[in-house]
Every structure is written in C-alpha cells, then in structure tokens.
Specification:
This protein has no helices and 30 strands. By secondary structure, the protein is an all-beta fold. The N and C termini lie far apart (90 Å).
C-alpha cells in the first residue's frame, strides 16, 4: 500500500520521512523507489500494507563515513524453547552483523534482522544434548569500521522423558530432574547474583511451568544459624528446606510449580501474636488471635496452647493465619492463665501469657 522511505545523516538522531505509493508494474514484486532529494548518508525503507502493518526495515548507505570509538554490545534472553539475541551499537550498522553461536563442538550462524539502524535481533533453539557454556560471537561493520563482541552464558536442557543432574557454582548448587519434570524441553539458565555477601540463584525463564518436581540442593554457609533455603516464585516466597543435611552440609528441597529464585535466608526473629481476645461466656472460654512471622513462616504443627497448664487444642486457619478455640467444658469461677507458644520454621520461639477471669 505504501513504501515509507526515511533518510538521516550519520550521527544525527531523527529521520526525515518520505512516503510513496508503489505503482504496479511488469516486474512482479519488484518496486522501484526513487531516492529523495537532499543531503543524507543512509536510507531506511519500510513496506506497509493496507491494514497499517509494517515490514522490518532495510537500510541502504549512500555514504559510509568512517569513524572510530563506536561500541558493539550483545544481549541475550532465554525464552520458552529458544534464546533471543540482540546486537546493539552506539553508532550505525553499515553492514549486517554476522552472529555465531558455539555449543560444545558445534558452531552455527544465527540469522539477524534489523529493527533499526543500530539494533539487530535474532533467535536460535539450543541443542538439547549439550548442557553448559554457550558462546555468542558477533562480527560487524559499525560506521565503516570492523568490530566484534562476545558473550557467554550457561544453559541446562531439561528434556521430557529423561532424568539428569546439573552442578553449578563450583558444586554449591545441584539440581536434579526426572522424566516428569518438564512438559516440553526447558532450556534453563542459572544466573548468580551476590548482594551484601548473600547469593541468589535465578533459574530462568521465571514463567516456565514445571510438569513435576525439580530437586535442588544449596550448600549451607558454615557457622550461620537460623538459615534456610527459600524459593521465590511468581507471587510468593516459601521456605523449602530448614535444615542442612548430609556430609556435604546442603539444604535440600523441591520446586514444583515454576522456575524462580533460590537463596539462603536468615530468620532470627521470633513469631508474633496479635489481636488476642479471650472471653468466657457461660464459663466456657473462647480464644481468638492471629499469628505472623516475617521470615520463614509459622510452624503450625508446633503451635501449643494451655489453660492452667492443661492442653487446649485450637482450630487453625493457616490461610488466614488465624487461631480459634472454644472450650466444651466449663471452668471454675476465678482467675485462670492462658499460655500460647509459637515456633517458626527456622526454630525461633515466642510465648504469650494472658490472665482472664471467669465470673
């Protein structure tokens, strides 16, 4: 429907647009577009159909002004089933970049498509039979000068119907999967981030849905108390291991929904109790309160309640962090003592006592 021709000078941002309507001719899909008048270095051509959808741009350099000092950067992102590569420059790609991916002993080219004069994008599907280091290399002409860039990252394929084990970070992280872990092949990337001495392992891509369990083990930090292995998924944080075990002193847990973040956290704050209400109509006391814990979460199986030293068994609503108790037998009139003991999943303890009167 339209041919959008834009012109620009090298190093000057902004394009001058010259739209033309192609004429049908005898050469099939070949369209002859006259160059606009004026002074410029590069021409961008985009085809647009009747619905306004545009093609990817193509570039023609009238002049390649040679200049040095322009950067070339490579970026990658792991998607479901493929890896996306972006090549960017602070100047102009005066020729399409050549990008290669190395996987073990294999090497292959990655087709790249321009989105602008300074950005090319491409993608590839990794090899399922190789786990470990991938290397991307790019050779490009930027502002008339040859330049190159490299990037490295690790990928670990989780293939349906198979089982295996991956080790990363010099043995500090171990991941195991079985034949049911993945619905389709997952190309998992592990990124390690260290903040104030604490490491976080990002298992990417985060939105990947697991078919079954992914077993994980993370080496404990020696000498650190109240430590636990946490997993942060799409919207929640869960303690998946509270005790390091085995001769290798590792926290072992499992991930069963999506990929996300693994990290060792320290919880040395005791759990707390709030909005405690005690009443004793007809000499049968009722107790109502909420519990909370900032770190590892309440260990509800360890929650204990006593009235005058006698065990009272409450009803626990873990979803809403609420505890209720209604006595079935009447108490004697006079003073009584309620004791509540809380424990979180990191082993921190707290105790609350409240005296009440039965009239």
């Amino acid at each position: 429907d339209r041919i959008l021709v834009s012109t620009a000078r090298e190093g000057i941002t902004g394009w001058s647009l010259h739209a033309t309507i192609p004429q049908s001719g005898s050469e099939g899909n070949v369209v002859h577009v006259p160059l606009p008048t004026g002074s410029y270095d590069v021409v961008k051509v985009v085809a647009q159909n009747v619905w306004g959808t545009k093609s990817t741009p193509q570039f023609y350099f009238v002049r390649k002004l040679s200049s040095v000092g322009q950067s070339l950067n490579l970026e990658h992102s792991v998607e479901n089933g493929f890896v996306r590569i972006v090549a960017k420059t602070s100047g102009m790609f005066t020729a399409p970049p050549s990008v290669m991916i190395y996987e073990g002993q294999e090497r292959r080219a990655v087709p790249m498509t321009p989105t602008d004069v300074d950005v090319y994008v491409g993608s590839f599907r990794p090899t399922e039979t190789f786990a470990g280091l991938r290397r991307i290399s790019a050779d490009a002409e930027v502002n008339g000068q040859r330049t190159s860039a490299f990037e490295e990252f690790n990928l670990y394929p989780i293939v349906p119907g198979k089982s295996g084990t991956f080790t990363a970070d010099n043995g500090k992280l171990v991941l195991s999967y079985d034949s049911l872990t993945a619905y389709s092949t997952i190309f998992m990337e592990i990124e390690k981030e260290v903040d104030d001495g604490e490491a976080t392992y990002n298992l990417l891509p985060h939105r990947t849905v697991l078919g079954g369990a992914l077993h994980v083990a993370v080496a404990a930090d020696p000498g650190v108390r109240h430590q636990g292995l946490y997993f942060r998924g799409r919207s929640s944080r869960d303690l998946i291991a509270s005790t390091a075990t085995g001769p290798d002193n590792m926290f072992r847990g499992r991930i069963s929904r999506t990929l996300g973040e693994l990290y060792l956290g320290v919880d040395d704050s005791p759990p707390s109790l709030r909005r405690l209400r005690v009443s004793a109509p007809s000499r049968r006391p009722s107790v109502d309160f909420h519990v909370s814990d900032y770190g590892s979460g309440i260990e509800y199986d360890a929650l204990k309640m006593y009235i005058d030293g006698n065990v009272a068994i409450p009803e626990i609503d873990g979803e809403h962090h609420r505890v209720q108790y209604q006595a079935s037998d009447p108490l004697e009139r006079g003073n009584h003592l309620l004791t509540i003991r809380l424990v979180d999943q990191a082993g921190n303890k707290s105790s609350v006592e409240r005296r009440f009167i039965v009239r």
